[in-house]
Amino acid sequence: MLSKVGQAVLGIFLIVAGTGHLTFARDAFRAQVPPWLPLDPGFVVVASGMAELALGLALLTIWRQPARGFLGAVVATFFVAVLPGNIAQFTEHRDAFGLTTDTARAVRLLFQPLLVLWALATTSALRTLRAGRVSPGASAGPSARPAAPARPGDVPPPPG
Fold first, then answer.
1. Burial class (CB in 10 A: 0-12, 13-18, 19+), 148
2. What value, to the nearest 5°, has the Cα angle with vertex 34 and ends 28 and 115?
3. What pTM, to 2 d.p., does this model score?
């Protein structure tokens, strides 16, 4: 139950952030786009805002495993993908979101790994990913089936 509440709160957080990317906080989010990124900062802000809206809505609507766990892994990956923007804001001393000191920007930077852990923990992503592994030699396509259970007397395959 607590993990579902955490998942819903994370979904709401992402919807609010995504809405901010597209409306009231667009300029502040532009400050997080690293200047070395070879894309227009306005495009990056809109695209990441749309991604946040989609991920937030998905977190509020997908509750069954394994889809829920895979979604958590995608959300965690998104948080890792935007980490360079947080690092750039810190290393380039960019003011945004009331973060006007290096200390404040450093503290904000420390929260990014917590968002990754939040996404993984509330969706049981790691457990889902471990359970979803395909046995060696099997196809990873949609028709892949888990290996048949061992029967008494079966000889295990050699390692490697």
1. exposed
2. 70
3. 0.80
